[in-house]
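Appendix B, example 12.
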Amino acid sequence: MTHTPMAAVWKDLGGDPALLSGVSTVARAGALEAALPVRELARTCVGACALAAAELGARRAGLARVPRVSVDDGAVATAFVSERHLRIDGRAPVGFAPLSRFWRTADGWVRTHANYPHHRARLLDALGAADDASVEDVAALLAGRSAREVEESVYGAGGLAVALRTPKEWAAHEQGLALARRPLIERDGPSGGGGPSGRGGPSGDRPRVLSPLPGDGPLLPASGVRVLDLTRVIAGPVATRTLALLGADVLRVDGPQLPEDPDAHADTGFGKRSTVLDLAADRRVLDELLASADVVVTGYRPGSLDRFGLSPEALAERDPGLVVAQVSAWGTYGPWGGRRGFDSLVQVATGIAVTEGSPQRPGALPAQALDHGTGYLLAAAVLRALTERAESGHGRVVRLALARTAMWLTDGIGHQEAPGTAPDPSAGEPYGRPDVWLSERTGPVGRLGHALPPVSFTGGPTDWARPPGRWGTDAARWA
């Protein structure tokens, strides 16, 4: 497995290559079919996450061997479109809003994102359109303007629009060049300070050593780990949803001025609790949460949380034993480092929409694979950092960017079947109906139909311990 995508990612994560022999794959034709190797990306991201979980679980449970990992293309493909499989009392969620779409311009195409009301308002303001403008109204306004002009004017107004670029154009773009110089998974640290017997920083003195795991019940590698979740939409919430699956106490924090879409929250809220906190006015509460957190995950536009002391650098300085994970759209560097972004827009900028499209119209990946893939990689990086912290007592800062994941997809994977395909008789059957990887349960938001987690290892959990609750209704404290 030396030259596989999995081996390369595991190396980026700092993992022991000897553990790769414990990963097997059930390959299924028809799963996440695309011009680009989306299936390979998806199985690699999930496989790396599962292996990192199994490694941490083995260490905490005192096992002689790391449990075997199985990656099933069917489970992975179903989970990578979990938002499409969600049902709330039989209702399918709303996908993209009417103004989140491709538009023809005078010289090409542009894609906008306006799912959130404040982004819709900024888009219309930048275009000089009325608040009640229709799709036809916006189409008429954009038809006479250049795509790059629309991109700059909408971003200047705080909205989201990206001009369609070819892979060659993105490779020559300043942001593309900046991303190409960075690894897929950035791992800074260890940051020093602290030791296995204490936090070693100013934020508290709770012991760093996580207690041994019990021998009964599912193996939950992240049991007892406190995760402060400052993320939105898909990538970050997928990472923290995965940590919750693995036993972590995940508390999602949102500001009162930015409520999350209820359907998005239901999809990514499994296993978590959710609270609303004004980061400026409720500073004491935030400090109390940070004082006993093991992990902080942020997913907002780079720089937007800095004024609250929540930059990765400030968090690491505050508590050198903390694991800090940051996900962004474009990276934290380069001319686009401070820009907002979403999976659909990153596909347009990086040339993916050209590759997956036709001469008549841009296309898209069969899933928001940049979001989901980056989310599982972020969870893997956190789990590996926790394993390393168990040895050194030191935390680490890890960073991923959707645009860097996109460049890995377009330039770094290549189509190939995974070695070590499981010998199960059903292995290799084409991916058809996803029913076997779907489940139902009742919770505070209603009767939920949902995708099951794809992260699988011997003795590990097969579903979340709790369904999602209602957004913002939990107390701002650890369980």
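The first helix runs from residue 5 to 12. The chain has 17 helices and 15 strands.
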